[in-house]
Every structure is written in structure tokens, then in C-alpha cells.
Amino acid sequence: MTEVVVVSGATSGIGEACARRFLDEGARVVAIGRRADRLEALAASAAAGGAAGALLPLELDLRDRAAVERAFSDLPDSHREVTVLVNNAGLALGPASALQGTPEQWDTMVDTNIKGVLHLTGAILPGMVERDRGHVINIGSIGGSYAGGSTVYGGTKAFVHHFSLALRRDLLGRRVRVTCVEPGSVATEFNLVRLGDAGKAAEAHRGYRPMSADELAEIVHYCHRLPAHMNVNRIELMPIMQAPSAFAIARED
Ligand code: NDP
Predict the structure, then answer these.
(1) CB–CB of 244/148 below 8 Å?
(2) pLDDT tens track for 28-43
């Protein structure tokens, strides 16, 4: 049976690589993002690769719940019965410290990384439950487990981590899998979005080799292609040159 895979944030980085990886396997893909030109380019490249019609571009801002509900109540038959949801769209904005970020940046991170995941899951999960078949793959972050990076961003990814594990409990007894993929540093547009400056973004990866979007897509695909009676609950990955660091102490003497 043909897989129907929804990938959010398919205009760039990990999401784009996931969309291509599933297309290569012969899946039908619903590719979500706000940048229509990139979605069109992805659809054209799928068509050029012999998969014309397999990719359905969906220009959507996931922060808008009504728009998400509308889009998913109106999918063509070819892409209606979703079997895999990759909740990948997300972002960090501004300085790491909550003492320096702005409330607007916090809102955007919460609205995208938490509410966006809820909006899309809410639109797609009921169909999976009804058909007793599906796989929700959420892209979390090591920032959800370790307080080493951006504070508010890490908080949103702690939500994704906990939501994924709790959803497993909610779905117990059904054949709907839930996986949280929690990466460290990956070379994508993530740091450009976070810092708004190509030079600073490049500096974030200076002197070590980050993981690639394609490598992450391979992990996402691996979690899915395991036998359907197995569930990867969470999987954490880092480049070899990245590791969790020790607790910090401020000495007053
Ligand atoms: P990119 O910036 O390359 O991609 C982010 C994607 O999210 C884009 O396709 C963007 O599309 C989409 N997006 C952002 N906001 C919205 C929105 N409101 N509605 C719809 N789509 C949106 O970054 P990555 O590929 O690295 O990020 C993918 C995921 O991986 C994120 O959840 C990120 O938090 C996570 N992650 C990344 C790490 C890294 O080091 N890169 C490490 C750990 C986790 P568009 O702008 O077109 O809407």
C-alpha cells in the first residue's frame, strides 16, 4: 500500500530532505511550508525524477489553526489517507538567554514549535486512529533534554519530547506509532533563521562537522521502515564533536 507522508517545513533543511527521501521510496508526499516558490521547485524536481503528481505542495502557516484545518479537510483523494506525519517545521529566534530574547520571539517559537505541532497533529491523527494505521514522527531537539542552548526554544522542544511520549500512552492498543527524533547540530538554514546573519550562522558550525539534513532524513526513514510492531519512542543524535556539558557554577568568592 502506498504511503502518504505529510512533512511540515519541507521548504528547507531536514523537512526537505525527508520529503525527498520518502518520494524516493515511492511515497506520496504532502509538503508544507510558507515559501511557495520552494514548494513549487520541490514539486518540479519530483516530477523531473519521474514522480509527477506524487508531491502535493501545501502553502501553509502552521500557526494558523483554522487554515490548517481547512487545508486538511480538503485534500485530494490521492493524498487524503495520511500514513506518516513528520512534524518537522520549527525554529529558534534570537539570543540563547531568556534574559535577552524578546516576547515577540518567544511567541513565534511557541506558536510554531508547540501550537504548529498541535494544529497539524489535531488535523491528521483522528484519521490515523480511525484507520488504525499511522506513524507520527516529531522532530524534537537535544535542547528539549539539556539546558545547553536557547532557553525558550529548549522549552518548546521539551514540550515536543513530552507530548510524543504521552501520545504513545494515549495510543496504546492502537497501531499508530509515535517517535521523537532529537538531533543536535545539523547543517540547515536553522542558524540563519535564528541569527539573521549568514556570517554568524556559518560561525556556529566552524571547526567541526555537523550532521546533514540527508543524514537526519535517513534516521527518520529508518524509524519508519522498522517492522510495524516496533516503535522507536525517542532517538537522540549528535555529531561526534558535540556532547552534553557539565552543570555550571557561579562562584562568589
Ligand atoms: P530550517 O530553517 O532549514 O527549516 C525549517 C522549516 O520550518 C522551513 O521549511 C520553514 O519553512 C518551516 N517553518 C517555519 N515556520 C513555519 C510556519 N509558521 N509554518 C510552516 N512552516 C514553517 O531548519 P531545520 O531543517 O534545521 O529545522 C527542522 C526542525 O529540526 C526544526 O523543528 C528544528 O527545531 C529542528 N532541529 C534543528 C536542529 C539544527 O541544528 N538544524 C537541531 C535540533 C532540532 P517556511 O519558512 O517556508 O515556512
Answers:
(1) yes
(2) 999 999 999 999 999 9
Average pLDDT along the chain = 97
- Pocket flag, ligand 1, residue 61 (CB < 6 Å): yes
Rounded to 10°, the helix 116-131/151-170 angle is 10
Cβ atoms of residues 32 and 8 within 8 Å: yes
How many angstroms separate the CA atoms of 12 and 90, rounded?
Answer: 11
Q: Is the CB of 232 under 6 A from ligand 1?
A: no
Cβ(139)–Cβ(88) under 8 Å?
Answer: yes
180 vs 199: CA distance, rounded Å: 31
- To the question of pTM greater than 0.90 for the whole model, the response is yes
Of the candidates 134, 119, 36, the residue with the CA atom closest to the CA atom of residue 84: 134
Distance between Cα 178 and ligand 1 center (Å): 20
Q: Measure 13 CA to ligand 1 centroid, in angstroms.
A: 7
Residue 251 Cα to ligand 1 middle (Å): 38
Grid cell of 90 as nine digits: 520549527
Place of cell 527521501: 21
243-249: long-range pairs with CB below 8 Å, 24+: 244/142, 244/146, 244/148, 245/148
